[in-house]
From TrEMBL:
Keywords: Oxidoreductase
Signal peptide: none
Organism of this sequence: Nonomuraea phyllanthi
Keyword Cytoplasm recorded: no
The keyword Glycoprotein appears for this protein: no
EC numbers, comma separated: 1.1.1.100
GO molecular function terms listed in the Swiss-Prot or TrEMBL record: 3-oxoacyl-[acyl-carrier-protein] reductase (NADPH) activity
UniProt family annotation: Belongs to the short-chain dehydrogenases/reductases (SDR) family.
Gene Ontology annotations of biological process type: fatty acid elongation
Superkingdom to which the source organism belongs: Bacteria
Span of domain Ketoreductase: 7-190
Protein name: 3-oxoacyl-ACP reductase FabG
Length: 246
């Protein structure tokens, strides 16, 4: 039997990149998936490619808006009848040095990553705790562990996701709801490949395995945390970095 047979998962930012890879792996392992994304057309296209209405649905969602997250989770309940896994993956970057970063750039990144993850975690937990089971997987970043130049906003938000997740894990453990975190390093996506070549090469030089990761390599770790393979894990932070900055 596949690892997520009969389960329903919601993935924010699921139309592309790491979120899309997670949705693909989940469907392959038997899950029904609702893809939430700020771009409804991209979400619809992804859902169609994943197999259509019987296994994948799309919903427009701004994770900074609690009502949007409610609607996203409601779509999972209305369409598939349950909510078993929540992956808070949606994110943006607005890189700039501390000297040049605007207040708007700081607020945008913190709102999407940190408030968005808070919204997704608390809203999913409210449903899961009533059923005495559920797995929440929050996507942080290596930037939240070590801090990165030009990312005071992103590093702060990603570090905050770790603290948020650990606190939530303690609150929800006795309700049967697990909360764990993934910290990806340099993963080959459209967002990372758009960075200047010099920055890419600097990051590559820090990776003992000598290569960037692929989205599916994060997705399989998300599968582990979403499934019963990790049934005695909560509050854990798993790095998927090729050994970078260990």
């Amino acid at each position: 039997m596949a690892l997520l047979t009969g389960r329903t998962a919601v993935v924010t930012g699921g139309a592309q990149g790491i979120g899309r890879a997670i949705a693909e792996v989940f469907v392959r392992e038997g899950a029904r998936v609702v893809i939430g994304d700020l771009d409804p057309q991209a979400a619809e296209a992804a859902a169609k490619e994943l197999g259509g209405p019987s296994v994948a649905r799309a919903a427009a969602c701004d994770v900074t808006v609690a009502a949007d997250v409610d609607a996203l989770l409601g779509a999972a309940l209305d369409t598939f009848g349950s909510l078993d896994v929540m992956v808070n993956n949606a994110g943006i970057t607005r890189d700039a040095t501390l000297r040049t970063m605007t207040e708007e750039q700081f607020d945008q990144v913190v709102d999407v990553h940190l408030k968005g993850t808070w919204n997704g975690t608390r809203k999913a937990a409210a449903i899961m705790r009533e059923r005495k089971r559920g797995a929440i997987v929050n996507i942080s970043s290596l930037s939240g562990k070590v801090g990165m130049v030009g990312q005071t906003n992103y590093s702060a938000a990603k570090a905050g996701i770790v603290g948020l997740s650990k606190a939530a894990a303690k609150e929800l453990a006795h309700h049967g709801v697990r909360v764990n975190v993934i910290q990806p390093g340099l993963i080959r996506t459209a967002m990372t490949e758009a960075m200047p070549r010099k920055a890419w090469d600097q990051k590559m030089a820090e990776i003992p395995m000598g290569r960037a990761g692929e989205p599916h390599e994060v997705a399989t770790v998300a599968l582990f945390l979403a499934s019963e393979l990790s049934s005695y894990m909560t509050g854990a932070v798993l790095e998927v970095t090729g050994g970078r900055l260990m």
